[in-house]
Amino acid sequence: MSVVILAVGLFSVGLYGVLTRRDLIAILASVEVMLGSATMLLVGLAAASGPIGEHQGAVEATGVLVVAIAAAEAAIGLALVMSVARRFQSTRADELTEVKG
Amino acid sequence: MNVESSVFAILSAVAVCGAVVTVFARDITRMVVGLGVFLLAVAGFFVYWGAAFLGAVQLFVYVGGVLVLMVFAIMLVHRSNDGRPRLESRHDIAALTVAGGLFFLVVTALIGAVPDSLDQTLVSGTDEVAEVFLGPMLTHFEMAGVLLLAVLVGLVIIVRGDER
Predict the structure, then answer these.
(1) Which of B78, B102, B115 is opposite residue A48, by nearest beta carbon?
(2) Do B89 and A20 touch (CB under 8 A)?
(3) Which one of B19, B115, B122, B132 has the fewest beta carbons within 10 angstroms of its own beta carbon?
């Protein structure tokens, strides 16, 4: 019960950061907070539910996959930020208005 | 209050502090340090729940990889600013409503479905993880490898940019 409140609370804090931050790197950091809390909820609920079925390592394996995908996301995101910074000399999200109608 | 619940409380406090610093800090260096504290606390939670291998992976990949990559990107992007760059946020009631409303919705949806006992831990180690990865989740494992290769190639193309 407390793990649900904690993990969803951390997810909401990260979401608030994504919505309010103006710097692209800070937005990425908030996304990392959201991803971390989601993995936390997965593993915490699995620990609370006790062993399910015959494959007891499945939760941990899924967590490892999530971490690998999150690392790939962070790497691509930071490369895009650097590309944007080189082209626009800025990493502020509200200055990137090239496709604004 | 027994030892387990006090460990849980300490880890929760550290995780919340790290997340709040990550989201609200006005100094970009402090933001990265807050993110590091949060990720360390999450790794601590994994170890606490018995998923020691996942905790080690979290430590290596996030704290050792992603965090260093983030510091690297900050040093490259913000080097032209003199002094320590300030981070701006636009705090408004709409963002607070969305985040708070999502918290309320998900908690009310999940709270009934979760068992109360939290003193159990996972019974898995590297043996079980290896069995799953090389057994029923072999496709996922291979796909993760393909994904990482695609990311590697994509990174080179994105960072190289227009100079060809």
Answers:
(1) B115
(2) yes
(3) B115
ipTM for this prediction:
0.91
A75/A28 Cα distance (integer angstroms): 10
- In chain A, residues with a C-beta closer than 8 Å to the C-beta of B124 are 56-57, 59-60
Backbone angles phi, psi at A7, to 5 degrees: -70, -40
pLDDT exceeds 70 at position B115: no
Phi, psi of A92 (to 5 degrees): -80, 130
8 Å CB contact between B54 and A60: yes
> Residue B148 is nearest to which of A19, A56, A68, comparing CB atoms?
A68
pTM of the model: 0.89
pLDDT, mean of each 10-residue run, chain A (101 residues): 88 93 90 93 81 72 90 91 84 78 70
The partner residues of B86 in beta bridges, in order of sequence, read: B27
According to DSSP, the residues that pair with A23 across neighbouring strands are: A92
CB contact under 8 A, B22 and A65: no
Identify the DSSP state of A89. Answer: S
Residues of chain A with C-beta less than 8 angstroms from the C-beta of B159: 79, 82-83
Exposed e or buried b for every residue in B121-150, given b needs 16+ CB within 10 A?
bbebeeebbebbbeeebeebbeebeeeeee
The answer, for A96 touching chain B at a CB cutoff of 8 Å, is no
DSSP letters of B108-133? HHHGGGS-S---------HHHHHHHH
